[in-house]
UniProtKB/TrEMBL annotation:
Transmembrane regions listed in the UniProt entry: none
Gene Ontology process terms (BP): methylation; siroheme biosynthetic process
Pfam families, sorted: TP_methylase (PF00590)
The family this protein is said to belong to: Belongs to the precorrin methyltransferase family.
InterPro entries, per the entry: 4pyrrol_Mease, 4pyrrol_Methylase_sf, 4pyrrole_Mease_sub1, 4pyrrole_Mease_sub2, CobA/CysG_C, Siro_Cobalamin_biosynth, Uropor_MeTrfase_CS
A GO molecular-function annotation: uroporphyrin-III C-methyltransferase activity
The protein's Enzyme Commission number: 2.1.1.107
Protein name: uroporphyrinogen-III C-methyltransferase
Keywords, in A-Z order: Methyltransferase, Porphyrin biosynthesis, S-adenosyl-L-methionine, Transferase
NCBIfam families found in the cross-reference section: cobA_cysG_Cterm, PRK06136.1
Amino acid sequence: MALLHKLPPFSSLPSFLPRRHPISSLTCHTFSSRATTSPFTEKHSIQRYQRDEWVYEANPSFQTTSCHLPLDSGSLREDDIALQLPELKRMLQVLREKRESEGGGKCVPGNVFLVGTGPGDPELLTLKAVRIMKNADLLLYDRLVSNDVLDLVGPNAKLLYVGKTAGYHSRTQEEIHELLLSFAEAGATVVRLKGGDPLVFGRGGEEMEFLQQQGIPVKVIPGITAASGIAAELGIPLTHRGIANSVRFLTGHSRKGGTDPLFVSENAADPDSTLVVYMGLATFPSLAQKLMHHGLSPQTPAAAIERGTTLQQRTVFAELQDLSEKITSAELVSPTLIIIGKVVELSPFWLISRKEESCLMQA
């Protein structure tokens, strides 16, 4: 099984980004152990609590380095909010008093920015996104915002984790709406950091609609969505003359949950189109069967990419009929993007993976 391990590319970095070793190489081998620590923020990570330690100043007995957390996800979220509430209220009051003193006794609502941080590599951030991050009062960030990206946040800004993962939501969507509204009404410059692009499977449209209805100015700073960022990393053109005349983004999550994708029409099995599946690890076996049932060739090239564009990137290449088995064998974890279509063959790494499999079969 061919796995692609990404190392830092050659690049000339802007001064505001951390420099990394200019090394570029490709290593393909059989997977034998778990990948290194995720570059993304995880609810139960020590790093997350160290970064958000300000929230717990109201409760000195809480030890950020121990992370002795309750196992029940529901009680964890309720306990988390209860611990944060006193400090959040204090911060709101400080912000209101500051804005009122600056505005002659009147508190003018602040701005909310929905900022896309791309698929993980901080070098893919826009200059505008970095500038806004450095000038924010409060940043609410998701699980798929990488720690390297959070390192670019201004030193005076407060960070608040509002991430979601399967079986655990640190905040409900309604609570996130209220947090954005409360701090904006207090005059704060609030940044909502989202992995990828805020308006591609990021629920940014819902947050924008809610705030606009409350009279709060909202600006969207686009980010490189995982589809284009990760495909470019692998040399996969999402469209290509004579091979793929369109591209379709699918979510592997149903709004009501369950094991099936939200919707797969017969048109999704178009051999002249490229399919990109977000959040599709759990539902991909079902999706693959549906696509083949609707006529997509079992030999269609495909790839599954875990933690794309980061140093921990791992990639599995296979034909559509075999990809589910290889994903399971490699123990890929979220976030993993899946790309299906003839364009996958155009990646230079597809040929390497084919040659490796041929060698393994002959051995």
